[in-house]
Amino acid sequence: MIERFTHLKLYAGVILLLALVSSAIVYAQIEGAPRGVLPIASNGDFEVSGIEVDVEGVNAFEARSKGWQLAQRKGWQKLWARTRGGNGGGLSDSSLDSMVSSIVIEEEQIGPKRYVAKLGVIFDRARAGQILGVKGIKRRSAPLLILPITISGGAPALYERRTEWQKAWARYKTSDSSIDYVRPSGSGAESLLLNAGQISRRSRSWWRVILDEFGAADIVSATARFERSYPGGPVTAHYTARYGPDNAFIGRFSLKVSNKNGVPAMMDAAVKRMDGLFENALAAGRLRLDKSLILEDPELIEEVEAIAETEKNEEKSEESAAETPRNTANEAESNEQASETIEAAPPPVVTQTFSIQFATPDVAAVDAGEGAVRAISGVKSASTTSLALGGTSVMRVSYAGDAAALRAALSASGWRVGGAGNTITISR
Question: Which of 204, 197, 188, 203 is nearest to 223 (CA)?
């Protein structure tokens, strides 16, 4: 008896140990080495990058302020020349301050009285567009989930580890593209949900779950396959663009650099060229939404099936009535009741996707904003797709209702609501 009890204790200990090891493995998969990179904010604002400044001041703070003001003036001149042609001078620093939404620091060196930097300036589209004569954001595609896959040494990777290809897509400014990209960060459980083998799946039901999670309508994949001649030597990358759950081919190209130091610049150039492939495919009508990926409302399905069953029963009744006498009064009453049942059915609630812009001075504001929106009744999912700490981030929200209902729900939750159409701005 004692021996049997000892064996049971031993078995229980082994089972407990295996459970702990399995939990540790799953935890390690999620909380291991850094995997994803948060994408930058990509709303419709105008951005001018690569502005070099070299100024002096009484102290470091004054020198930096002068450098930023000079960057705004240079950025406005470049933006004017790009959109209208010629010189865009004549605006005061105070006017430029009201149009600039943020300054992007690409490189900077701060001395006691000198400031040398390479900066980017982002101008608010609504305010700058009035002066530039730009009426609005151009027509874009449906939200498409982008999967940047890297194949190096024969091993594919998506968010299993951080790659230069994924970093390039994260820092790409998508506001001027006609493709509405949904770019996951790859952090947390996203590295388990999205992996390099995902594009080989054909199950529509599985893709529906993923697309609903990220608020997308379809998927596009961008694959970069690396070839190295020898360590420290030339690097060649072959890029392939594909679309949809069936992995339909769109196009391919190759780029080459002399050594690994040129890989980041090559990646940035490849992302722009890949975006061009997707834009051309959209213009040619090749990026058509797959109807099998449309998220269906279970309640609507039940209603349709009930109506179809009612019609089927009516057809059977009519066929049997042709052979046997029927009670006209009872049939009329039955048809009237069926008609009342169909008319009384509530209209289906369609789930729509909205872009919500909200201020994010720090990481805590991101979590608080997402949590507050998720708590609203009718919200299916809410995730930040474009992060701008210290500025305005963009959250993609799937909501069972129209824009007016979502605005009313946000107002009832204590938010100040603005914006137009499916783009909403909220603030406290």
Answer: 197
